[in-house]
Design a protein that fits this description.
Elements (H helix, E strand, L loop, with lengths): L1 E2 L2 E4 L3 E6 L5 E14 L1 E6 L4 E6 L10 H13 L9 E7 L9 H16 L6 H11 L12 E5 L3 E4 L7 E9 L5 H6 L10 H5 L6 H4 L4 H8 L1 H12 L4 E4 L6 E5 L9 H4 L2 E9 L2
Parallel strand pairs: 6-7
Antiparallel strand pairs: 1-5, 2-4, 3-4, 4-8, 5-7, 8-9, 10-12, 10-13, 11-12
């Protein structure tokens, strides 16, 4: 079985408040990037195996979210799984880790979805959603297959209503800089009382620049000035909207016309670079 876990971007991320459990309540949007994917192969094996190739990931293999997803599925649904349920999980990483593009979460979600089919476990979509949400705040999004608004820690998902909008071109740049989630939240400044993100996304896309932002930029840009420089370069290249994605180091620009790549020349050889088209509902 071959699966292709996609990256994601967040167009708008509001940090609303800190919760008693030390998490934060958020409001954010999720959009898949179908042109930037990891590759996950699930195959039969006499014993469990996990192999990871491609872009490097820090930490031991047992800490990888693919392995955690396998263990979580077994721990939660042991009675539904066949007696012989060992498998080989082979992951090819194309999505940079620590970038805010959700690669690890996508890998975990697709591991759950793939194993459910591979093992014929009869686990419902709602049950997989609950299991994914326990693994990571944005894991459950990758089981939806459509753009969503996320609330709570990001696991409370509401599909964005369809609108008749054209596809847009997107450029993604990731500097050689990994930002941990804990580091990103350390200096964040929660703020309540803003218009709902779903209403802001309904406005003309040309107005998003002045309406929609990512709250992590306020704390991360002063600490990592290269991020602000890349964002400005995307605007100089002709983007109508540019932003940090999630809490990581990836920045993206949305374009309705061909980008001026000369404006990005300083960064193209120093950053991970990907581009393609996405549909904005």
């Amino acid at each position: 079985m071959l699966l292709f876990p996609p990256a994601k971007i967040n167009i708008g991320l509001h940090i609303l408040r800190k919760r008693p459990d030390n998490y934060h309540d958020l409001e954010l949007s999720f959009f898949e990037l179908p042109f930037l994917c990891d590759v996950l192969e699930i195959s039969p094996s006499s014993q469990d195996e996990f192999l990871c190739e491609g872009i490097g990931i820090a930490g031991p293999p047992q800490e990888n979210l693919v392995v955690k997803a396998l263990k979580s599925l077994r721990g939660t649904y042991a009675s539904r799984l066949p007696r012989e349920n060992t498998c080989r999980l082979h992951l090819l990483k194309n999505i940079p880790a620590g970038s805010g593009l959700g690669g690890g979460s996508a890998d975990a979600a697709y591991t759950l979805k793939g194993l459910e089919q591979f093992l014929h476990a009869g686990i419902s979509r709602e049950e997989l959603h609950e299991t994914a949400a326990r693994i990571g705040s944005d894991c459950a999004f990758f089981l939806q297959g459509r753009a969503c608004i996320g609330q709570g820690r990001g696991e409370q998902l509401h599909p964005l209503p369809p609108r008749h909008r054209e596809n847009v071109h997107i450029l993604v740049l990731v500097p050689q800089l990994a930002i941990s989630t804990a580091e990103a939240y350390r200096d964040c400044h929660p703020q309540e009382g803003r218009p709902p993100l779903i209403d802001l996304l309904a406005q003309d896309m040309q107005d998003w620049k002045k309406l929609i932002g990512n709250d992590f930029e306020k704390s991360l840009f002063p600490k990592f000035p290269v991020l602000a420089r890349i964002k400005q370069a995307l605007y100089d290249a002709g983007a109508f909207y540019a932003s940090l994605s999630g809490s990581g180091s990836a920045l993206f620009g949305l374009f309705k016309q061909e980008a001026d790549y000369q404006a990005l020349a300083e960064f193209q050889d120093r950053c991970f670079f990907s581009e393609g088209d996405i549909a904005i509902p």
